[in-house]
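Example 317.
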Amino acid sequence: MDYNAKIYVAGHRGMVGAALVRRLRRAGFNNLVVRTSAELDLRNQAAVADFFADEQPEYVLLAAARVGGIHANNTFRADFLYDNLMIQSNVVQQSHVHGVRKLLFLGSSCIYPRLAPQPIREEHLLTGPLEPTNEPYAIAKIAGLKLCEAYRSQHGSNFITVMPTNLYGPGDNYNLETSHVLPALLRKFSEAAAQAAPAVTVWGTGTPRREFLHVDDLADACLHLLRHYDGAQPVNVGTGKDITIQELADLVAELTGYPGEVVFDFARPDGTPRKLLDVSRLHGLGWHHRIGLREGLQQVLTSADWLHATQPVAALH
Ligand code: GDP
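Predicted structure in complex with guanosine-5'-diphosphate:
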C-alpha cells in the first residue's frame, strides 16, 4: 500500500475508528479522510454518494456503526438494525460505484449462533439461532458481511470482513446503561473504591464467559489484513482466551483496589453463555495479539481520559 493512498476511515470518532486512525498515522499513511457524523450522516444515501464522488477514496475502513452493550442492544433494537443496515449499505455500494481498491468491513463476534461450538470458527456463521438480546445488531452485521461477499462474487470487489471479539481501550463508552461490561466494571469499581462503597453490583449471574481484545491490537490486526489478506472468508480477531464475568469483576476489583463486596443482579440478562473466537485463521495469516488483559486494563486505568469519555445516553439517538 502506498503511503499517499487516500484512505477513508468511516467512524473515526468511535473507539475502533480512532484506533485505526492512530495506527495508520503511526505507520506513515498521510492521506486519511474522515468525517464526523454531523458532517456526513452515513445513513443518508445521497449524502454518502456525494461524499464518495467528491473524495474518491482508494481504501475504505468501515468502522462506523451504532454499537453498545447488552442493555443498549436490547433496548434500541430498531436503531441498531436500521442504522447499521443503512450505514453499511451506503458505504459498501458507493465503494463499489467508485471503484474503491479495497474495503475492510468490521463485524462482531455476536454474529455467530448463540450456542455455536467453542471456540467459534468462521464457518459456524448461520448454523443456528442468534442470541436474542443482540439479534438486531447481529442481523445487520451478518447482512454487511454478506454484502461484502456478494459484491466480491458479482463484481470482483476486494471487500474483506473482520470479526472482532469484545473490545476495550481508549475512547470507550463509560455510560453505565449503554456500555459494554468491561468499561462498566472499570467505572463501577473505580468509583466504589474512591467512595469506599460497601458493594458493587454486577449484572447477571457472573457465569458467562467473554474474550477481551485491546482496540489497539484490533487496529494492528486490521492493518495487517489490509496489507496481507484479500480473501472472501471473514477473519476472526481475538486473543483466543476468555474469562468469566465473575473473574473479570475480581480482576477489576484487584486493579482498582476495591476491597468491598460484589453483588450479582440476577434480574439483568446474561446474554450468550460464551463467545470465544477461534483465531487460527488469523494466526495462520501471521498476526498474533500483543496486549494481555491485565496489561491492557492497567493501561486504560492509568490513562487520563478514561473517566471523561462517558457518552450521554442521548448519543444513541
Ligand atoms: P454482550 O457481550 O453482548 O453480552 O455485552 P456486554 O459486554 O454488555 O455484557 C457482557 C456480560 O457482562 C453480560 O453477561 C452482562 O450481563 C454482564 N455484565 C455484568 N455487569 C455488567 C454491566 O455493568 N454492564 C454490562 N453492559 N454488562 C454487564
